[in-house]
Design a protein that fits this description.
By secondary structure, the protein is mainly beta. The chain has six domains: about 15-160, Jelly Rolls, CATH 2.60.120; about 165-325, Sandwich (Jelly Rolls), CATH 2.60.120.200; about 335-495, Sandwich (Jelly Rolls); about 590-745, Jelly Rolls (Sandwich), CATH 2.60.120.1000; about 750-915, Jelly Rolls (Sandwich), CATH 2.60.120.200; about 955-975 and about 995-1160, Jelly Rolls (Sandwich), CATH 2.60.120. Helices cover about 10% and strands about 40% of the residues. The protein has 13 helices and 86 strands. A hairpin with a 2-residue loop joins strand 60 and strand 61. The longest helix has 30 residues, at about 1205-1235. It starts with a strand and ends in an 18-residue tail after the last helix. Residues about 1-10, about 330-340, about 975-990, about 1170-1205 and about 1235-1275 have low confidence and may be disordered. One of its GO terms (biological process) is cell adhesion. Keywords: Cell adhesion, Cell junction, Disulfide bond, EGF-like domain, Membrane, Phosphoprotein, Repeat, Signal, Transmembrane, Transmembrane helix. Belongs to the neurexin family. This is Contactin associated protein like 2b. It is found in: Cell junction, Paranodal septate junction; Membrane.
Amino acid sequence: ILIIMLFFVSGLGKCENSLATPLPYSSFTSSSVYAQGCGAGYAKLNRKQGAGGWSPLDTDHYQWLQVDLGSRKQVVAIATQGRYSSSDWVSKYRLLYSDTQKNWRPCLQDGNIWTFEGNVNSEGVVRHELQHVILARYIRFIPLDWSREGRIGVRLELYGCSYWADVISFDGHGVISYRFRSKKMKIVKDVISLKFRTTAGNGVLLHGEGQQGDYISLELRRARLQLGINLGSNQYGSIQGHTSVTSGSLLDDDHWHSVVIERYRRNVNFTLDHHTQHFRTNGEFDHLDLDYEISFGGLPVSAKSGSGDRENFVGCMEGITYNGDNITNMNRSDMFTMVFSLSPSLDSDTLSVSLSFRTWNPNGLLMFTALTDGWVEVGLTEGKVTVYMNMTQKKNTRIDISSGSGLNDGQWHNVHLNALENYAMLTVDGDEASTVRTAIPIQIQTGGTYYFGGYFLHSNTRTTQRSFQGCMQMIHIDDHLADLKAVEQGHIGTFENVSLDMCAIIDRCVPNHCEHGGRCGQTWDTFSCNCSGTGYTGATCHTSMYQQSCEEYKHQGKSSGNYWIDPDGSGSVMPFRVSCDMTEEKVWTTLKNSLPPQTSVTSPDQEGKAVLQITYNVTDEQVHITSSAEYCEQYIAYACRMSRLLNTPDGVPYTWWVGRANEKHFYWGGSGPGIQKCSCGIEHNCTDPKHNCNCDADLRSWREDAGLLVYKDHLPVSQVVVGDKRRAGSEAKLTIGPLRCQGDREWNYWNAASFNSPASYLHFPSFRGETSTDISFYFKTSSTHGVFLENLGATNFLRIELKGSSVVVLSFDVGNERLVLSVHSPIPLNDDQWHRVEAEKNIKEAVLQLNGQYRDVRPTPPQGHTKREFSSELYVGASSGQRGFLGCMRALKIDGVTFDLEQRAKVTPGVNPGCQGHCSSYGMHCKNRGKCVEQYNGYSCDCSLTAYDGRFCTDDVGGYFETGTLVRYDFVQEAGPFALRDAKSLSGVGVPFESNLTQEELVFSFSTSSTPSILVYISSKTQDYLAVVLRHNGTLQIRYSLGGLAEPYTIDVDHRNMANGQPHSVNLTRNLREIHLQLDHYPVSTYTLPEASDTQFNLVKSIFLGKVFETGKIDPILIERYNTPGFVGCLSRVQLNSVAPLKAALRSGLAAPVSTHGILVPSNCGASPLTISPMASASDPWHIEGAGAAFPFSEDKASGDRVDRNSAIIGGIISMVIFTVLCMMVLVIRHMFRHKGSYHTNEAKGAESADCADAAIIVNDPAFTETIDESKKEWFI
């Protein structure tokens, strides 16, 4: 039986008509009305009649405004206002729609019940374009939030146009058959579309088949839509063409669903309700061969008996088209989400309750009722229906029964509970096999209230089940159907948090947001992904667990072995296992195949050809590794006896191999494309010079042609066809080696760019804003702030930036919300070391990770996960007025795609390919282990961990010690990780905590004329110490006492008097037992501690300079011989490892555990500046004539100076004349340039234009550039 309802079709012009304004007052209804002038009919946009809009009597979440459009319409947008000239408006709302007023469906966007942002005042108009067009007659407006100053108030307009179509009702018996014009149809392209609505979970929507086995079928199975296509299978069955794809869920909801099937040859687009699946049919055929007809609504009478017991469709269809033909034109001749209660009219000694439910939650209360003596509870427990009966008469008796499994699958299930005189019976889905019976020891007595979906009353019989989330229908109590309309109107029972006439269940796993084959599970509120066995991790299985290449494993310190790699990261290509050879400088990636070495070639076919298949246990996509590699090779060998290979020089090849893209190749190992030769033919050493392959000589003895195939676009070898095998005595053996590749052009671990100014940036095309996005890169910088990358759109943005030297921030928008994630590093990130940033945003959460260990995770809002649309390009570095990144960035990867920073940097001003920058070019100017720090207009040198000072860490920090002066530097007692952290901040010049040293470096300079004295003494909490002293004769002695020896180990430097008033340098280093000593610029001397000596300097306590003032046991020789009267002279450049005690004592700005006794006068002690090469003089480099240094006076040197006094006077006069001339030239030049239109300089224009305090210091100190060679003035950018 076919019931055909005819509607007319339009659609001319733009679908933007006002739908609500032309309607009469009676088309608007509502839950209630506040006053006479606030009726529903006044809720029209910009109207002022009545009280200027609709307001309900109660301002709560149970109010609604409904619009009857008169017939089905296409609704594309909605606009709202508050009530005219009032404090009443709605700030958030939802939309429901229906064709019958009994089965409401919420408006969805991004797979969620959508909450629309409303108004913030009474007059402004807020319009929203619907993501998907609504086809409905009735629209219901549900306020969710409203004005805090007033109440609910609204005026609205709906925009759209008329809609009509031919609707065909199917009762399960009638079928529409569309007969083809010809008896058979051989079709290469199909376009089929239809809309359907049903309450049945199973049924055939369309079916067509052909005698050769071709068919196309679309049917509902368990409320999911399944499309089956077979373009043909061969008679042997080796080519199977059957392909089946499933889409959607909960399609038996009595709402309209749209289906479009587009096929071109083997490529199919299957679209259900705007969600499209792209797939390719199995087999190798392209045409769909159908006989006679295609049917809609069920199987035709001519269908084959093998179709099985498949039900016909029950419901409605409209808009059926097949390849441009309108099939419908040709054929023209109770539900709710709950918690509510009902009270029966009479007591009873039997209990009978039945209902239907659907839910995703494994647990929840279905029904609860109190008995005269006890209570009964029906619920879901781990997907099973459970019944608990508690009898309190005489004694507590508890009866538990359960039935069914996996009932939280979103499908409708029926539950029927009967409790009679002495037994209870539970049946699920009407299946007698599921019925469970149990005895009841006493007679029950009902009569209480029945609660469905939850139980909130305070009672001693409170249920242990949580509330039910889902849908119920067909509720019967004692075989009477519950009147839910009466419940809604308050005539019987009560309800709370109930939506009548609507089942708002959503399948959050369709479409499946779990990527890479992750298994989706869900509850009523959310979904989760099980990623086990996929090779991916994260909330949506988006992030690969494996590295992209063998190269990356090597950079992690791994050794050769078998590893899983994922070349495209989070892309669609699944990870696969390879062998990584890391023994050479370049890493080899190896894919092994299935062919054993020296495989005998047998079993030729009728044409005399033997086909050998080579498989690699990877897909064609995974073999893409060869196209991104820099070089690939594969060994191939053909051993032969009377079996010709290429039939050279001019014959048709007997044997060929098939590579990538199924192309045949007629060259062999050691040769190349287009050259029909073997390796011996290239090298001119074949067995028979007449042929270009050894095997082509056709000898009875074994020969071999072997070599490497290196044209990587043809690799790997997937098949070899051997043709010369039919003759008697012909034999051949084939070897195909593994595929070996080196390098990766697409993913270069060191692909980097350096940003040299705050305005420098790289730009790339905007990346696709999918619902899941991952970004990763490495950076190093000396700056404290900067934007790493940014992408902007009209409403969307994404930014990753560095803030405050230790914080990385990710910010982006989701819907109307802005999400900000930040990761704090315990160490500064502007340390010019590489740091890795990883960010991922998906529909579940956002994750920001730093250096693989510090992370911030935030759940993303449920709304707003449309594909992001960015109107601007992707900027790496500065953009939109933000403070740009200054430093280096490498290995930038977004959604598995690596960005070629180096190539873009080559054509971009202000950015250099590779990791370059100010410090890369000029960092060598920071001397004495000073650290180069990037600045916006140059660089600076951090001298905090050195014993030097000045712009380039070349200025000596020294002091002149009077008699009795000493400097003491104490190491802080380490009390845990916090003490260590505090110690670092305390010193400013090192890490002054107690430690056990197995190696140390002590460096200092001194000048003195008095002996004996202690220069440096390092004490410990044990009896260990290190002392450097000057003996009475001015020679140097090193004393080591590390325990294990009766006397300290001493090093005497007897060949030189160092108390001669000249500056001398000492560099003493120890590593375990080996000691190296360098004095001045003499060669290094090496010494070794005795075997009996310990190698650990235990618990270093203090450093003394000039004199020792220490409690506890001290070497008496030191005190008696060298400690009195103390050191008199200059000490400078004193540094033990990273601690500079003298600098800490002389720099008041450094808070350090240092104390000074006596008079200490700052002095450079006559040391030469390190900007002059120490090897410039053949004599003692510390003896510098005319340097202007204030040395302690030496009588010998003074007498020498008197001899050349006249020369000095003449030189002085000449110097004065030259100085005067130079000064006059400077004044003239300054006067000339003062009046010129431009002033050319490489310095910044002023401190006020500097971007930071460091830049301002550079601007105000013009001498900062004087030591830089003229050829390097581009240092200021």
